[in-house]
Write a structure and sequence with these properties.
Blueprint: H1 35-45, E1 52-56, E2 59-64, H2 67-74, H3 86-90, H4 104-117, H5 120-125, H6 127-147, E3 152-154, H7 155-172, H8 184-200, H9 219-246, H10 256-261, H11 271-302, H12 304-317, H13 334-346, E4 357-358, E5 363-365, E6 368-370, E7 375-378, H14 380-384, H15 399-402, H16 429-446, E8 447-451, E9 460-462, E10 466-468, E11 473-478
Parallel strand pairs: 2-7
Antiparallel strand pairs: 1-2, 3-11, 4-7, 5-6, 8-11, 9-10
Helix pairs in contact: 6-7, 6-16, 7-11, 8-9, 9-11, 11-13, 11-16
């Protein structure tokens, strides 16, 4: 793929003691569907895997496609801030964990997340929700397969609604019927879909400040209309929780709203900040899980031998499938965990680690001086497809994690850090993985996944996350399990 069509104007970054290689001109890669691939090709062309510089409009960027340099960037306090897109600011996410400026307010949010929201005790407390919704997804798949032509299932559509209910139950303590026309479920789905689209749009105004006056893409107008609806929707849920709390003498906490309302003075959030924090969790937690499960199942359709091996492993811990799975079984399923890791390696949901970092002050990365205000990125897709790091990087081989060296995916090893690393690592990674592992195991225990009328197309498209361009549609053949 030639990078020349993407070069527009402006010079690349050349302000460091040691010149950083990169294309001269301003790149429009982020308006394309595969920016991670284009940037990887450019880094290879300029021999700049450690660090490459480029510009988009008036925004200066550096990007690393090498684990050690990536770790230096992500673990540095100098890169503890995030550049705030116009859509994120208008949707109030600058008051939520993902985009809040580095400082005391952000530190308080991280403390709340690690201590109250995503602690091991809290994750374990939601096991019933995960198991129950997983089984509802199984029943929905059976129903769809029986009623559809050829028994085919639109995988992401089913799992998306299950994932949305999982997040809503965890965050708000409420579930929704998405089949009810004009019901609350349809209204919620519209809000989530609109927010997801707005956060994923490439907005030229983010890189050409003068364009913000015009809002020619309509991003600001749409964001403000959405925020008004979100404030009303989430605000009403918070008010219901306040009324419940006033009558709840034992102070029982059932969901994230209860937790936030129960915080003590030093940690307490305003209602508007609470709305921002909770709404961001819905965006982060819904499609990330659904997209990853879809990628895993696509691989299972393509690799029937691997699917059979996983089913055999599941049978070995469930007394030959005479009982359903639970969270406690996951630690006994190393091949399942290897399959999820290998899927994350080949299809990282955030190939550019979703949201970049912003240099708070001038800082050295290796021999290079990076000026304050420079946006730093990590091309995780390039790292996970690098033949110098991985043997046969284009091959789907879960055994690389069971027979070879194990690799942590929680942020300590930048060869595979799909959830980021350092201060801005995803706080909900453990809860998300718990959900994905359980649901994939439930899907494989209950169905044999086989090709439908169309071949599986692994072409990806990068929106807010890296999705399958053509949603997976395949057959889910019920297995003969002895429970249900």
């Amino acid at each position: 793929m030639s990078p020349e069509p993407y070069v527009l104007f402006f010079d690349s970054l050349n302000l460091s003691r040691v010149s950083i290689p990169g294309p001269s001109g301003s790149l429009a890669v982020f308006s394309r569907s595969h920016p991670h691939r284009v940037l990887a090709a450019l880094a290879q062309r300029f021999k700049a895997s450690h660090l490459m510089a480029f510009s988009v409009g008036f925004s200066r960027f550096v990007i690393s496609s090498e684990p050690d340099t990536a770790k230096e960037i992500l673990n540095s306090s100098a890169f503890a801030d995030r550049p705030v897109k116009e859509s994120a600011y208008e949707l109030l996410f600058h008051r939520a964990m993902g985009f809040a400026p580095y400082g005391e307010y952000w530190r308080n949010l991280r403390r709340i997340a690690s201590t109250h929201l995503f602690s091991p005790r809290r994750i374990a407390g939601f096991v019933g929700v995960r198991v129950g919704i997983g089984m509802k997804i199984v029943k929905k798949i059976k129903s769809v397969a029986m009623s559809s032509a050829g028994g085919e299932v639109d995988v992401k559509k089913v799992i998306h609604f299950g994932s949305l209910n999982n997040v809503m139950t965890t965050v708000f303590g409420e579930s929704y019927d998405f089949d009810e026309v004009n019901g609350d479920g349809c209204f919620l789905e519209r809000l989530v879909s609109e927010g997801y689209e707005l956060l994923g749009i490439f907005n030229w105004s983010d890189h050409f400040g003068v364009l913000r006056w015009f809002d020619f893409q309509g991003v600001r107008k749409r964001c403000r209309a959405l925020v008004s609806e979100v404030n009303t929707f989430v605000g009403s849920i918070i008010e219901k929780h306040k009324m419940k709390a006033s009558n709840n003498l034992d102070g029982e906490e059932n969901d994230f709203v209860d937790v936030l309302l129960g915080l003590q003075k030093d940690e307490k959030l305003s209602d508007s900040d609470m709305i921002a924090v909770l709404w961001e969790m819905i965006f982060r937690g819904t499609d990330t899980v659904a997209i990853l499960v879809e990628w895993v199942l696509a691989r299972m359709v393509l690799h029937q031998d691997i699917q059979a091996k996983l089913f055999k492993e599941i049978a070995s811990v469930t007394s030959n499938n005479t009982r359903s799975l639970s969270d406690s079984d996951i630690s006994k399923l190393p091949y399942l965990q290897a399959i999820v890791k290998e899927t994350l390696r080949l299809h990282p949901p955030g190939p550019l680690l979703s949201w970049a970092r912003l240099a708070i002050h001038d800082v050295n990365v290796g021999p290079n001086l990076i000026p304050a205000g420079t946006i730093a990125m990590v091309n995780m897709w390039s790292i996970t497809h690098d033949a110098k790091i991985w043997t046969d990087p284009e091959e789907f081989k879960p055994e690389r994690f069971t027979e070879g060296e194990d690799v942590s995916i929680m942020g300590s090893d930048l060869r595979l850090a799909p959830f980021g690393a350092g201060r801005r690592v995803c706080p909900g990674k453990a809860m998300g993985l718990a959900t994905v592992h359980l649901w994939v195991a439930q899907m494989i225990q209950n169905f044999e996944w086989v090709k439908g009328s169309c071949d599986v197309d692994l072409t990806e498209v990068l929106k807010l996350s890296m999705e399958m361009k053509k949603p997976l549609k395949c057959k889910a053949v019920p297995r003969n399990v002895c429970f249900g």
